[in-house]
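I have been asked to look over a protein record a colleague put together. Thanks in advance; the entry in question is below.
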Amino acid sequence: MGQERMKRALILNAINPQIGGVLIRGERGTAKSTAARALAALLPAIEVVQGCRFSCDPNRPDLYCDECRERLEQLGQLPHEYRVTPFVDLPVSATEDRVVGTLDIEKAIQRGERQFEPGILAAANRGVLYVDEVNLLDDHVVDLLLDSAAMGVNVVEREGISFQHPARFVLVGSMNPEEGDLRPQLLDRFAHAVDVVGLTNAADRVEILRRRIYFEQDPDGFIAAYTESEEDMAERIIAARDRYDLVKYTEKDMYTIAALTSSFKVDGHRADIVILRTARAQAAYEGRLQINDRDILLAAELALPHRMKKQPFQDSVMNPDQLQANMRQARAEAEQAVTEEREAMEAQGAAASDEKKA
């Protein structure tokens, strides 16, 4: 019930995990972890290289792990199979070795064998990695997760020996702000951040009660009642994944995004990249091959609030009217910038032509 912004952020990251993950902030009992688990259950089974410990995609040899590359050289072709989309829950006490995996240095020295023990990143590849109470996790471990989510690969190096494998997953973190916040440097690394609160409308709360009681009394009936809508959404996500690389954008769109982030005085350039990726995913989800102003606006709602500079005790929720006003101004600036750039190029071309004639 409700929480449309959170659901949209999760779906768009499922379409393109390289957007960079979702941070869900909210009070207790607002279905943060339930939403993350529901996303994994929604995603279809994945095709993987048979026997691969890292769930490598047989259609993407360029993303194979080191083991699959060696097998491919030896066999020439690798069999494949289907697996359920993985959902991995990262414990707060996880160490670096538990997350990235470990290399057995002793075997490497004594036998010349490169023995790698996979970690949580390997288990989460092509699935969902959920971190509850991410604000209580060690900062160094959070950095590792965010780096892997952004790069899509995990490289482990020890004593001159290295091993790499794909680590492309939907990163979902949740936290209760009452228990402490993330450092700004780590907060910025999450592509999207959404704040969730309990519903206050009595009718909505009654509907939540009805659904909960329905599930407890008849789990099979409850699942059957929502199977069709879940299958429809899963098909839309699959279609959007296939469509994503075809979605186009113009110079004017990029100028609009840059002007919008500048108007909110956002540090760095990560927000610009996130908004563009998110807008393309939004367009793909809606079945279009070209982004528009609405896509950029919806993307900004997810990418900007946690990156804006705010005063102490100031709410992090963005004012919709302010966002729309800044968006209109950004579009006007973009049109002017593109026009000036085109005129400058035409002037340069004319000058070059005159010089050639002379």
